[in-house]
Amino acid sequence: MRNSKLSIPIIISIILHLMLIIMLGYQAIKNIDGINYGKETGNSIDAIMIDPSVMTDQYQRQLKTKESQQQADKKREQQLVDQAKELQEKQLAEQQHLKDLTKERIKLAEQLKKQEEERIAAEKAAAEKAAAEKAAAEKAAAEKAAAEKAAAEKAAAEKAAAEKAAAEKAAAEKAAAEKAAAEKKAAEIKAKQKAEQAKKDKAINDLLGGLTSGAPNSPSDQSGAAASRKGSSDDELAKYKALVTNAISNKFINPANVYSGKSCVLQIQIAPDGLLLNVTSSGGDEALCREAVAATKLATIPKPASGLYDEVKNMTVEFQPK
What we know:
Elements (H helix, E strand, L loop, with lengths): L1 H32 L18 H157 L10 H13 L2 H18 L12 E7 L5 E9 L1 H13 L10 H4 L1 E6 L3
Antiparallel strand pairs: 1-2, 1-3
Helix pairs in contact: 1-2, 2-5, 4-5
């Protein structure tokens, strides 16, 4: 297509040259026909001669020019083809580069996505681990607090028990000391009373010359005691024994009602003013009797009425803890 476009100017040039040759030939013929052969003017005739070699050279030059033009056109076409090919190759390379960049971007995006997922998973695992550690720490703290509380309560209970035991021991020691002191005092009083009674008996015996009427357990004494007992009522006796039992209960310790429902028979000997001379047990729970005897020695026995003394100076009391 390009060669056909380039040949048109050459054809036109050839046509113009041919027309020019024809015109020149025609002019030359016209000038020859108009020559005035009868005149002797001596004027020269102008004529244009066309050399065929010139025409051939010109034609050859035109062909060479055409060939050169064609070669130039082919070279330009080749250059255009090469440029187009190079451009295409560049475009293909650019497209390949873009594809490679796209792949790299996709790969990078996938890596970033994977890294983000790994980061989220790591954060989740760290959060779960922290939560577990926190729960474990709270549990350990709660267990420690519970253990400390239990230890404190145990220590407080042990301290309270020790204090109670110490107090009970001190009270028992005090009671034992008081009991020992009371027993000692009672023994001293009893010994003193016996000494005084012996002294009185000796004086009476010396005064009466050893009459049997003054001896203890004489018929006259027994008859007097019987008369005295007849003069006193059973109600008064019961009331006095109740007062004695109450006095013993005031000194008796019954922790946790250990001795509830149990009883002990006490044999009590007192002086006219109520001073305890002696106490023994004659039956009942042994442990209760031991405590009852100790409480009786600490008790303050009320003074009996003068008419009642002979009946209660050696009395039997059945003691039951309240």
